[in-house]
Design a protein that fits this description.
This protein is of the alpha/beta class. It has two domains: 242 residues, Metallo-beta-lactamase, Chain A (4-Layer Sandwich), CATH 3.60.15.10; 142 residues, Flavodoxin domain (Rossmann fold). Helix content is 35%, strand content 24%. It is built from twelve helices and 23 strands. The strands form five sheets. It has a seven-stranded mixed beta sheet. Strands 12-13-14-15-16-17 form a six-stranded mixed beta sheet, with no helix packed on it. Strand 18, helix 8 and strand 19 form a beta-alpha-beta unit. The model has no long low-confidence stretch (mean pLDDT 97). Bound molecules: MU-OXO-diiron.
Length: 395
């Protein structure tokens, strides 16, 4: 069922309440998601983006219930990723000759995904389409935000920025607008989305935000491709992005570990005690990797000024959960964050050295040689872990 965004602009997407994982199994979506597609019905009719492939037939059927598909004049593909372009093959069977407006990189990604030679019209920043009734679509390339093919589309007159992935969240809701949903949940999903997807592109994003600001476009609505439409103070999410893109951190230290016989867990908790003893104002969080969602922990790292990473030594190395998590962090290219390593061992005790090397390679500033303890931590070892936490807080 279509929902009105403003005047002749309608949401015609899909709410995916069941989605638990996105990007294969890489991103947890505790609150589901939406794939937002928009229909603009002026003198000319434009469709902006579609939905994820499993919902393609349902999408086309619903769309055909709202409008004669032959009346669509323009299709805008802001981004070639399957969650937005997945409805195209089913749609184009009905209207194979209709023009698809997208970036040159999107032609590559769409051809690469679907092996179809549709009627592509390549656009660049500043290119326009006239919709009649005094309204135009203006394109803004968003290269690497987050794919080479990404772009945003701006509708003059109604002053709506169709931003695609930028400013979105994986958040299923039947309510269309940001002011209609739980604000805490919306914020949490927005920051998680930024932390897990956009962090590596922060420098690019800072430049793009400046470029969009310089265009001086009045923005009354930001219609993203996932989650809510920002109509109540839409620039609030732009301001948040500016903060998050600026090597974001809060006064938080996060201690993340995995453990075999709870020795490393004991160290983690004592390190947390030490941090709080040295600086009661710092937010300290302690998480066992094996019992927490990795993407939620990435959000905690994103908020942190420092992290302590712990693993016992196994086979002269570290637990694979910890290695995998460091690999995840490395890909996100965090900046301006400190790190320390800790862990228990029985005989050889390499884990702390391995963690230090991996964390340095992941771009973290290693604050000291780390803390390792042989066998289960006794009272002295626990006190040493508290002191290690104090040093971490003071670093
Ligand atoms: Fe929501 Fe990059 O796709």
């Amino acid at each position: 069922m279509k929902k009105q965004v403003k005047n002749n602009v309608y949401w015609v997407g899909k709410v995916d309440w069941e989605l638990q994982k996105f990007h294969g199994d890489e991103y947890s979506t505790h609150k589901g998601s939406t794939y937002n597609s928009y229909l603009i019905q002026e003198e000319k009719t434009a469709l902006i983006d579609t939905v994820w492939a499993p919902f393609a037939e349902e999408f086309v059927k619903n769309l055909a219930g709202e409008i004669d598909l032959q009346k669509i004049d323009y299709i805008i593909a802001n981004h070639g990723e399957i969650d937005h372009s997945g409805g195209l093959p089913a749609l184009m069977k009905h209207i194979p000759d209709k023009p698809i407006y997208c970036t040159s990189n999107a032609v590559k990604s769409l051809k690469g995904h679907y092996h179809e030679d549709w009627n592509f019209h390549v656009v660049k920043t500043g290119d326009k389409i006239d919709l009649g009734n005094g309204k135009e679509l203006v394109f803004v390339e968003m290269r690497m935000l987050h794919w080479p093919d990404s772009m945003a589309t701006y509708l003059t007159g109604d002053n709506i920025l169709f931003s695609n992935d930028a400013f979105g969240q994986h958040f299923a809701t039947e309510m269309l607008f940001n002011d209609q949903v739980d604000q805490c949940a919306l914020f949490n999903e927005s920051i998680k989305y930024y932390a897990n997807i956009l962090t590596p592109f922060s420098a690019l994003l800072r430049r793009k935000l400046d470029e969009i600001t310089a265009l001086n476009l009045p923005i009354e609505i930001i219609a993203t491709s996932h989650g809510v439409v920002w109509r109540d103070n839409p620039l609030q999410i732009v301001e948040k992005y500016a903060e998050w893109a600026d090597d974001y951190q809060e006064n938080q230290i996060t201690i993340i570990y995995d453990t075999m016989w709870n020795g490393t867990k004991t160290l983690a908790e004592k390190i947390a005690e030490g941090v709080t003893a040295a600086d009661p104002d710092v937010t300290v969080k302690v998480h066992n990797l094996a019992k927490r969602d990795e993407n939620d922990l990435i959000t905690e790292v994103f908020k942190s000024k420092a992290v302590a990473i712990g693993s016992p030594t196994i086979a002269n190395n570290i637990l694979h959960s910890v290695a995998g998590f460091i690999h995840l962090m490395k890909g996100l290219r965090f900046k301006r964050k400190k790190a320390a390593a800790f862990g228990c061992y029985g005989w050889s005790g390499e884990s702390v050295k391995v963690i230090n090397e991996l964390m340095a390679d992941a771009g973290f500033e290693i604050i000291n040689e780390g803390y390792r303890n042989q066998w289960n931590p006794d009272d002295d070892a626990q006190k040493a872990a508290v002191d290690f936490g104090k040093a971490l807080a003071r670093a």
